[in-house]
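User: Fold both of these, please.

Assistant: Here is the first one.
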Amino acid sequence: MMTDELKPCPDCRHKAQLYENNFVGRHSFNIECKNCGRRTGEYEKEHELIAAWNRRAAPVTGWVSVDERLPEPDQEFLAWNEAKEMYLVGRGPSPAYFTHWQPLPPPTSAPACTPSPPRGG
């Protein structure tokens, strides 16, 4: 394996691992970050997978034109179309339906609700 050729994860900058998959009648490779779990799809050719992983850009933080970059196939995102409509997209429609996109913000955790102490007299 050529793990030492991999660039760090574009999301968290930690080390990634190359995996070789041998299934009945199918041989493929994929890469996964050991820290955040970001992973690629399966590729038949190891060198093409490594090249694709190493080209990945840093995380997107705003609206991006589909001419510049497309969302990952398994990524949920907000999309904007020419009719100036924004909508939530659940994993991979054709970019023909939207002009710009941005990733969903990370989930927030609601603050714990603590009851007020009873008021006594």
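And the second sequence with its predicted structure:
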Amino acid sequence: MEIDIKLLELFGLINKKIWKMVAPFLKELQMSVTDMLLLQRLAKKQSCKATELAALIGIPTSTLTGIADRLVAGGYIEREHDKEDRRSIIMRVTPKVRLIINDKKKVIGEILAEKFKSISESRKERLLEDLQCILTIMEEKEENTE
């Protein structure tokens, strides 16, 4: 059990380090980490109801409304009423977001390549396999709880 806690702590620290690397990129776009999380999740889903999106990133719907207002004004997302339920709002990203996400991945990739240059390719491949294994297990657990 102790190793599981250490893994959890390590993932948290790595996640913080990655977001710290992205911070200058987000500042340049005048975006917060929450804005980028929202855009990433929405880009993966193509389109999503506002209530589902708020639940996905763990924020209240009222908070999402303010963030969405900013992102609509910035040309990052579009909102429309659900044709089946006019009370529901459907959100989707604009093509501009795909470019931003690709740029972000490129920037992070370059930074990580520089930081990881001292690690052998075989070690990186093992690490990648291990992380993929962990992700697969987590996705299986997620499916079983739905």
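Residues 2-29 form the longest helix (28 residues).
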